Amino acid sequence: MPLPYPSLKPCPCGSGRSYAACCEPAHRGAAPETPEALMRSRYAAYVLQDEAYLLASWHPETRPGTLDLSDGTRYLGLRVYRAQGDEVTFTATLRLPDGHRAQLRERSTFARLDGRWVYVDGVTP
């Protein structure tokens, strides 16, 4: 179950907009218009532990059967470097369950499926 998050607080994705004006509509069922918007909404879903949204926004051919976001990892920040075509390159800063800080840099690929963007996969550049 997703963690509650106030609509007027800054969005966890780091866009600088409120959650209500940024990722909340996607989390409530609106289709993100671009791969970057989908990637940001997925990052916010990791912050909020919204496993259902993450699975629903994942391409069925690459989607895992389940996700477990209760391991204690905390998502501390997102930096988008490049969003072009169907790819988004970003770094997510994390605090791992053992307390160590880590950075995940990824080039994510997205595809249109039934008129909506979905996450396909990612590689570490």
From TrEMBL:
Residue span, YchJ-like middle NTF2-like domain: 34-122
PANTHER family per UniProt: ADENYLATE CYCLASE-ASSOCIATED CAP C-TERMINAL DOMAIN-CONTAINING PROTEIN, UPF0225 PROTEIN SCO1677
HAMAP family, A to Z: UPF0225 (MF_00612)
Top-level taxon in the UniProt lineage: Bacteria
Name of the protein in question: UPF0225 protein ACFO0D_13480
One Pfam family here: SEC-C
Family per similarity comment: Belongs to the UPF0225 family.
